[in-house]
Amino acid sequence: MNKKYIAIVFSMITLIGCSSRNSEINTPDNVLINDLETGEAVSQTNIIENLPKEQQDAELNKVLAQLRQDRKNGETIVNGTSISVVPNGADLPNQPQNMPEFYKESYESTAQLVTLTQDYVKNTLQIPERSYGYDIAPAIDPRINAIYDDADKGVAKGYTNENIIIYEYETEIDDTYSNLIMVRDNIDSPWKVIHHGNSYKE
Questions:
Q1: 92-140, pLDDT tens digit by residue?
Q2: DSSP code, position 71
């Protein structure tokens, strides 16, 4: 399901103190920008894919930075519930073909992920909380999500795609992101963090 945005509704925010950006409800939209030469609306995917290979990473980093800023700016509070509509990067080039549909996960699984990632970032990594809380969300960078199409799962060796999930988080440096790689034994088991970093091959 190639949805471009994640709309997040998570009423437990006041109980666990974590941004409700960590959720799985999707709404469709297109991420378009205007071509400077033609003035026509074109997708970010087409812009990046048409660049020379050596420029693609730099341009992708710019797009990721904008999507993450949009995410941080997108949260509102309605009747005590945090609601966000944020981009999930599905329109970016080279997103994996075999990523599971985690938006179908149960509420309990999502709640456990929220608690786990919040606790890891706050207490294990000891990243200070910012005025807007912690920016933790499903990973949108296709370079880390490549794990789902890669036969070599790296640090998640031995786990199948449906039992691997990656969330990104803002590090102690403003607007700099890293990733939490989490696995579970089966769909009924709890998630656990096995690695943090910018590559699943480390």
A1: 888 999 999 998 999 999 999 999 999 999 999 999 999 989 999 999 9
A2: H
Q: Which two tokens stand for residue 144?
A: 């880390």
CA 109 – CA 76 distance, rounded (Å)? 23
Instruction: Please tell me the pTM assigned to this model.
Output: 0.75
User: Each residue of 60-93: b (16+ CB within 10 Å) or e?
Assistant: beebbeebbeebbebbeeeeeebbbbbbbbbbbb
Contact assessment for residue 23 and residue 9, using Cβ atoms and an 8 Å cutoff: yes
CA separation (Å) from 145 to 15, 68, 112, 125, 199?
30, 16, 21, 22, 10
Strand order in the sheet with 75-78: 25-27, 5-10, 81-87, 75-78
Rounded to 10 degrees, the C-alpha dihedral 183/186/187/189 comes to -80
- Provide the greatest CA pair distance for the chain: 52
Six token digits for residue 17: 């103190």
| Contacts of range 193-199, beta carbons closer than 8 Å, 24 or more positions apart | 193/116, 193/117, 193/120, 193/124, 194/155, 194/156, 195/155, 195/156, 196/120, 196/125, 198/144, 199/144, 199/154
- Bridge partners, 195 (sequence order): 181
Q: Are 21 and 8 in contact (CB under 8 A)?
A: yes
Cβ partners under 8 Å of residue 116, min gap 6: 182, 190, 191, 192, 193
Whole-number CA gyration radius for the chain: 17
